[in-house]
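Budget justification note: compute hours in this period were largely spent on complex prediction jobs such as the one shown. Inputs:
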Amino acid sequence: SAVISQKPSRDICQRGTSLTIQCQVDSQVTMMFWYRQQPGQSLTLIATANQGSEATYESGFVIDKFPISRPNLTFSTLTVSNMSPEDSSIYLCSVPGGGSTDTQYFGPGTRLTVL
Amino acid sequence: KQEVTQIPAALSVPEGENLVLNCSFTDSAIYNLQWFRQDPGKGLTSLLLIQSSQREQTSGRLNASLDKSSGRSTLYIAASQPGDSATYLCAPWDYKLSFGAGTTVTVRA
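Corresponding output:
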């Protein structure tokens, strides 16, 4: 299994500012995933972050709005840029437990409120 | 694009009743399917992982079945308890997880 921590756990931000969310895993993993869960909605994949390469973004998400860093095999950051109230969501990172057929583990999430 | 549908959207049952949660997905080319539980304001807890080659998987009171060819999975929860109250999400994996909207379960004491 993988133990994942995220910082901050929650934040309240002003419109137009940016927030960087950190995701730390207790083991080395090749792939990390960032998800968004808008209020009352299910999870939507934002991007896949592989160490040593550019993140791959899903349709509807762009690098300028959600830049991602992946400096090593245990850490990643997601920045939510130029925030608006529509960005108020829970942001979660996840990693595979091992290989492409194993359990996916999720961090506790970062609850973001934009005023 | 994988589309995942979960039925019903919500379920309220008295304690002790068995629960049946349904999940359907449009693309059967998956490697596995995972069931998660989400408590209000919390992250996701993995309940069961069922591989594409398997027909079912069991853990305690939980049993998940998978019919990959028809794009369906069912989660059975036996003898429900108030602590089972949560939102249950299914997510097939094909190099990424696709989530349904979930089934919100309330078990009344």
